[in-house]
From TrEMBL:
Protein name per its UniProtKB record: Puromycin-sensitive aminopeptidase
GO molecular-function term, one example from the UniProt record: zinc ion binding
Catalysed reaction equations from the record: Release of an N-terminal amino acid, preferentially alanine, from a wide range of peptides, amides and arylamides
Keywords for the protein's UniProt record, in alphabetical order: Aminopeptidase, Hydrolase, Metal-binding, Metalloprotease, Protease, Zinc
Length: 883
């Protein structure tokens, strides 16, 4: 397989101005015709024109209406080359056949539950027709679709419908025209038996936009929340960024077989059903929140991604990091900002940090790839969003908005790079961003150490920072990064100190805003070692560092437990209150893990129990915040901090603390469950979600105690629940402990919901993720369950990735978990390489474990690499994991 490098990027020799596509959809085959207006980059260009193509059967090629003879073009497995195209502008017409019914890769044109649909990002368009399949080729499209009318009454593509009609013999056609030029990865086509929920949105300049959400007819009632989310997103983008929708029609189609969450094709977003369909009875609060976020995300791409797109795929974070940041902000504004931030930071720590510390570590803008699909990662997306957030932290809301405005002013209709975004932010604000660009080019999570000292005599408080960016594959030595540190200082009474200036680099710098002192300021750490000294500090403060988590780094500070308990109780920055609790919990868990490994009895620090209790009982706090604050850091997060990850010890310790808290705070948890019961109908809003979240966490703690009375309580909650959020939480609570009660309730749940595939997926996932000993066997049996299907990515994710999320079972010392995954990867790779490569990633950190586990995991990676016909996708991850 060939590796592709950013440094090799070259402008194309030919541009495509306009593309007319014709699809004749059939049951045996689909015929695709394209007519492309080609114009050379420069007069007299004599370079060959190389088109990408994959799994296509070529029928004919014409240049300026003349059919080319075979000696005038060259065809190989991946390309169609015209060695000497005419000089000047010309038209190229190509006819080819494809076989969507046989396409299990879910890329290009394929069938999902009887309907045709497409997925072209990143490089799927080449599975539809021959084309320069790269995002810097932007053209205007028309698309004519012909199909059997009774099987496919609905025919959709990008842009506006300009013509439709019937043919004799039961076929019909539709002609679509997209007035905006776009790269081919945004092309989409849908043909099927679908119905739509219709609504309208009036933009602030008065454009009336028709909104349609398409699903099979029986699912239409479940699209209310998706429509609400879409309208909220449209309004929000106008209010916050001044960005309006630019066409008269916006379509969303929900399909059950889809590789990822959703795709932002121009005016025809295609979604995985699980991110569209919801009803209170079948979807949880988490599902509702995910739908809001992803509908927002795809809609926001219309500007950040579609109107301004990426020059090449290395720039993916230009659109993804920015759009994730935008959807995070949208969700924050629709719910609780602190809780959303906590959730996003947890995700970063649990998934991105491990990636950044492993063999697949890559910068936000990667330098090379074998398969681009392997780089739709938490680094490009979530760390990329943190990079965008840092601009906002440094510039403030208004400065950030100025930067965004300039970005659109300069680049609307263009395919650009991360530097272009950086330059817009800088130029709009006349800002000094020093070495900020390293965030795009250096991989690895920076470690920042902070030491503090107070000089009572001089009344100064000093903070010394030192940073280290760990080596990552291909980058042994790193430069220091530009790290914005949002900071406040607390008096011993818990109040914030006013800050007006700071000594830095031998100068006194003002931090006041409009001559007023501030309570939070942003320090700019840009060197390997750097000191900041605050003058006029009347008592030793407790520092609140990285308020709101102002940079994606690992922090080591000299705060002691009593400082942390103090911050947990008093910090005016709610995020940092949560953070202080997490640092305490992480330290506690790590020290208990060491005790466990040395066969010492486990004893829980009473001060910790007390801290949790006071949060739990503080009625002034937001309930969802409480729910987050009493949730222990995940097992992965703790393993990530160990020299040699020990899944058994971490699991034992986390379970021990949970049970200990449950038993010591049993009364408080019981009251919490009682006080937070649902009294009214399900409403998706913050206060109600917060109440359910808190109740469900409390129930989970209680049920961990394996006490028959408490199991009865959970069963009662299960039976009386009026919404999926509470029913599923009760099911999860009961399913923690093996035994008849668990088996019965799982069977009951399945028989109640067997007709709803999205609910059945939750049922698969719950069992797959279970920590009960020897669960691999249960998962193997579930593979044979009639509701399971290896061709459906959602089911594969639920069952197989779900299983890998249970550290004890996936990392079982007998190697059973690794063997299971190894076999699944090989099977899946034959069907869908993208899904298989996501699975194989679960092996990538095998070196983090003890020798026995290392050799077991390594053997599976070697087995996978030696299997016949391996895809490039899996090859890339498996080989880099072993390197
Ligand atoms: N842009 C798509 C992801 C495409 C994944 C290709 N393998 C969804 C999104 O980020 O909005
Ligand atoms: Zn996206």
């Amino acid at each position: 397989p060939k590796e592709i490098f950013l440094k090799d990027y070259k402008l194309p020799d030919y541009y495509f101005e306009a593309v007319d596509l014709k699809f004749s959809l059939g049951e045996e085959k689909t015929i695709v015709s394209s007519k492309i207006t080609v114009s050379p980059k420069a007069e007299g260009c004599s370079a060959p024109l190389v088109l990408d193509g994959c799994d296509l059967k070529l029928v004919s090629v014409k240049v300026n209406s003349n059919e080319l003879k075979e000696e005038n073009f060259h065809l190989d497995l991946h390309h169609l080359t015209l060695p000497s195209p005419p000089s000047g502008k010309f038209t190229l017409e190509i006819v080819n056949e494809i076989y969507p019914q046989k396409n299990t890769s879910l890329e290009g044109l394929f069938k999902s539950s009887g309907n045709f649909c497409t997925q072209c990002e990143a490089e799927g368009f080449r599975k539809i027709t021959f084309y320069q399949d790269r995002p810097d080729i932007m053209a205007k499209y028309t698309c004519r679709i012909e199909a059997d009318k009774s099987l496919y009454p609905v025919l959709l593509s990008n842009g506006n419908l300009i013509e439709q009609g019937d043919f004799e013999g039961g076929r019909h056609y539709a002609l679509w025209e997209d007035p905006f030029k776009k790269p081919c990865y945004l092309f989409a086509l849908v043909a099927g038996h679908l119905e739509s929920r219709d609504d309208t949105f009036i933009t602030r300049s008065g454009r009336k936009v028709s909104l349609r959400i398409w699903t099979p007819v029986q699912d239409l009632p479940k699209t209310v929340h998706a429509m609400y989310s879409l309208k909220a997103a449209m309004k929000w983008d106008e209010n916050v960024f001044g960005l309006e929708y630019d066409l008269d029609l916006f379509n969303i189609v929900a399909v059950p077989d889809f590789d990822m969450g959703a795709m932002e094709n121009k005016s025809l977003n295609i979604f995985n059903s699980k991110l569209v369909l919801a009803s209170p009875e079948t979807a949880t609060d988490a599902d509702y929140a995910a739908i809001l976020g992803v509908i927002g995300h795809e809609y926001f791409h219309n500007w950040t991604g579609n109107r301004v797109t990426c020059r090449d795929w290395f720039q993916l974070s230009l659109k993804e990091g920015l759009t994730v940041f935008r959807d995070q902000e949208f969700s924050s504004d629709m719910g609780s900002r602190t809780v959303k931030r906590i959730a996003d930071v947890s995700r970063l720590r649990n998934f991105q940090f491990p990636q950044d510390a492993g063999p697949m570590a890559h910068p936000v803008r990667p330098h090379s790839y074998i398969k681009m699909d392997n780089f739709y990662t938490v680094t490009v997306y979530e760390k990329g969003a943190e990079v965008v957030r840092m601009y906002k932290t440094l510039l403030g809301s208004q400065g950030f908005r100025k930067g965004m405005d300039l970005y659109f002013k300069r680049h609307d209709g263009q395919a650009v790079t991360c530097e272009d975004f950086f330059a817009a932010m800088r130029d709009a604000n006349d800002a000094d961003f020093s070495n900020f660009l390293f965030w795009y080019s250096q991989a690895g999570t920076p470690h920042l150490k902070v030491t503090s000292s107070y000089n009572a005599e001089a009344r100064t408080y000093s903070l010394k920072f030192s940073q280290e960016v760990p080596p990552t594959p291909g980058q042994p030595v790193k430069e220091p990064m530009f790290i914005p540190v949002a900071i406040g200082l607390l008096y011993s009474n818990g109040k914030d100190m006013p800050l007006s200036s700071v000594y830095h680099d031998g100068k006194l710098e003002s931090v006041a805003v409009n001559d007023q002192p501030v309570y939070t300021t942003v320090l700019r750490v840009t060197k390997k070692e750097e000191e900041f000294v605050f003058p006029d500090i009347s008592e030793r403060p407790v520092p609140s560092l990285f308020r709101g988590y102002s940079a994606p780094i690992r922090l080591g500070s000299d705060l002691n437990d009593s400082d942390l308990f103090f911050l947990l109780a008093h910090d005016s920055d709610e995020f940092n209150r949560w953070e202080a609790g997490q640092v305490l919990a992480r330290n506690l868990m790590l020290s208990l893990v060491a005790d466990f490994q040395h066969n010492k009895p486990l004893v829980l620090n009473p001060q910790f129990v007390h801290g949790i209790k006071s949060i739990l009982c503080d009625s002034s706090l937001d309930k969802e915040f409480i729910a987050k604050a009493i949730t222990l850091p995940g097992e992965g997060e703790i393993m990530d901090m160990m020299k040699v990850a020990d899944p058994d010890a971490v699991h034992a310790v986390r379970s021990f603390i949970r049970k200990q808290l449950a038993s010591e705070l049993k009364e408080e948890f019981l009251i919490t469950v009682k006080d937070n019961k649902s009294t009214e109908q399900y409403v998706f809003n913050h206060p109600n979600m917060a109440r359910r979240a808190l109740k469900n966490i409390a129930l989970g703690y209680l049920a961990s105690l394996e006490d028959p009375e408490l199991a009865k309580l959970a069963l009662h909650e299960y039976k009386t629940a009026t919404n999926m959020t509470e029913q599923f939480a009760a099911l999860e609570a009961l399913a923690q402990n093996p035994g008849k009660a668990r088996d019965d309730v799982l069977a009951d749940f399945y028989s109640s919901w067997l007709d709803d595939f999205l609910v059945v997926n939750k049922w698969f996932a719950l069992q797959a993720m279970s920590d009960i000993p020897g669960n691999v066997e249960n998962v193997q049996n579930l593979l044979k369950h009639p509701a399971f299907d290896l061709r459906n990515p959602n089911k594969v994710h639920s069952l197989i990735l779900g299983f890998c999320r249970s550290p004890v079972n996936f990392h079982a010392k007998d190697g059973s978990g690794y063997r299971f995954l190894g076999e699944m990867v090989v099977q899946l790779d034959k069907l869908n390489p993208q899904v298989a490569s996501r699975m194989v990633s679960a092996f990538s950190r095998w070196r983090r474990y003890d020798e026995t586990r290392q050799s077991l995991a390594k053997a599976q990676l070697e087995m996978i690499l030696s299997s016949n016909g391996l895809s490039e996708n899996v090859f890339e991850i498996a080989s880099k994991s072993l390197a």
